Amino acid sequence: MIIRCWGARGSIPVCGKDYLRYGGNTTCLEIQNNDGDILLVDAGSGIREAGNALVATGQLNVTLLLTHGHWDHIMGFPFFKPLYQPQIEITVVGEAFAQDSIKDILTQVMSAPYFPINYDEVRANVIYADRCGDIFPLGDLCVESIALSHPNRASGYKFMDNGKTFVFFTDNELGLDHEGAAGYDSYVSFCRDADLLVHDAEYKDDEYSGKRGWGHSTVGQAARLALDAGVKRLGLFHHNQDRRDDEIDDMVAGCRDLMARAGARTDCFGVSQGMEMTL
To answer: What is the pTM of this model?
Structure first.
């Protein structure tokens, strides 16, 4: 399994000299299984570059899996070049929760006054599939979902292929159970012994008191989940829009120190735009 990050930033894209190492695009991951099937997770601003790469390589089939419908996770959808290629088939999978359907959400992104090109201009064969059940196949990947703790709800996903496990928890507040959240004990069980956990770590621990209820975790909370679940690697994700590269470096160093003091072998790192991880 190959995991590529096309965007690791939270809330809104950023640019400038202080954001070069970790990047400025909002959430988009690419997962490629051992048979070369392509799955994208979320349509933040990073999906623009992901789409350009797919078109350049002649990829004709792609699945887009959505964690939730907040703006920073769907804002790149109108700029996804495969949408305008008639030979490409795109399967969009996600949950509507208590909101509109997936298609309605994405159609609204491409409607006046938000965007000049109407959804009717889409030329690809786009198939929408509200997923059924908590475990479902996508190609040779087995995908399992769980309800995260986030305003308006969100889903976390576990990807299993060829004996390797990757868990992706973006936008998950471990310090508070929002409506519909599965709860901490369930998260520990879900992540148990994962080869890689990529988790929301938007805040420093001393920032959390003023951000409680906003739907995101601290680096310490993410580290504690990784320790309790016994995961092998922890990637810190959903970097705050104002977080400079050197500040993220400090958060990673603090996470590594916590792991060392706990006597754990868990590797901690900051997920960066352009990073490729192989399991």
So the answer is: 0.95
